[in-house]
């Protein structure tokens, strides 16, 4: 008993095309060259983006600590609080809500969003400096 191959159907994905195969096209030798300047600019943009995301992370971490009532005597809490106070961009007392935990969440959450926007915009401007 031998299996005879079935003819391909039109709905199958394995139907052979009647068009001739496309030849392999090697990469162009005249493509964009990577210079020391473009690498430096790219690295600087990456550093700016990572730094802004870390700042946003610290600010959000402080807001989460406050919302979930972390122990203020804890060393980690104090460390994050001291960093977040300097990274709040003056937005720590922007809104006054009835619950101080929600006030902290809104104000420091807004600061985190501002950090993300500023970091992305600045990294984009830096990347445009590369030719």
Counting DSSP H or I runs of 4 or more residues, the number of helices is 3
Q: Give the termini separation.
A: 67 Å
Estimated radius of gyration: 28 Å
Q: Helix/strand-derived class? A: mainly alpha
How would you characterize the largest beta sheet? none
* Strand segment tally: 0
Order of helices and strands: HHH
Beta-strand share of residues: under 5%
Give unreliable regions as ranges.
none
Mean model confidence by pLDDT? 86
Inertia-based shape: elongated
Helical content band: 55-70%
Structural account:
The chain is mainly alpha-helical and 131 residues long. Helices cover 56% and strands 0% of the residues. It has three helices and no strands. Helix 1 crosses helix 2 (75-87) and helix 1 packs antiparallel against helix 3 (100-128). The longest helix is centred in the middle third of the chain and has 32 residues, at 36-67. The termini are far apart.
Summarize the structure in short.
By secondary structure, the chain is mostly helical.
Describe the secondary structure blueprint for this structure.
Blueprint: H1 36-67, H2 75-87, H3 100-128
Defining key terms:
131 residues; mainly alpha; 3 helices; 0% strand
């Amino acid at each position: 008993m031998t299996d005879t191959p079935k003819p391909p159907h039109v709905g199958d994905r394995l139907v052979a095309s009647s068009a001739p195969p496309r030849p392999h096209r090697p990469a162009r030798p005249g493509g964009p060259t990577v210079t020391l300047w473009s690498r430096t600019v790219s690295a600087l943009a990456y550093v700016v983006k990572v730094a802004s995301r870390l700042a946003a992370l610290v600010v959000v971490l402080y807001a989460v600590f406050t919302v979930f009532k972390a122990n203020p005597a804890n060393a980690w809490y104090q460390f994050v609080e001291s960093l977040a106070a300097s990274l709040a961009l003056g937005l720590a007392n922007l809104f006054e809500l009835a619950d101080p935990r929600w006030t902290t969440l809104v104000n420091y959450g807004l600061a985190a969003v501002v950090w993300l926007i500023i970091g992305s915009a600045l990294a984009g401007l830096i990347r445009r400096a590369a030719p």
